[in-house]
Amino acid sequence: MTVVSSTPLLLDRRIAKARAGDADASYDLGIAYSTGTSGAALDLIEAHKWLNLAAAWGHDAAPAARAEVSDDMTAREIATAQRAARDVIGLLNRRAA
Questions:
Q1: Residue 34: C-alpha distances to residues 19, 21, 56, 59, 95 (Å)
Q2: pLDDT band at residue 3, thresholds of 50, 70 and 90?
Q3: Model pTM greater than 0.85?
Q4: Cβ neighbours for 29, distance < 8 A, ≥ 6 positions apart
């Protein structure tokens, strides 16, 4: 009997919700990427991106989590994460127009 993990599917669902502007999903992704859990590889740039979006969309805990993640990042990595967050917002705005 083969057991198939639902973790990638759950991660994909969270990404879809986050790309639609869901602050909770964005926060969850930021935490997952910052810790390498829930099917996400450890990736501080992705973590910062999603936490930045969560903060922009009003998640109360996101700014502190983003600050903690950024402590372990270079200025270039932070800039990359910020650019990626702007890209998500731009895509969301284009869909709304």
A1: 18, 20, 18, 17, 28
A2: very low
A3: yes
A4: 11, 14, 15, 18, 40, 46, 47, 50
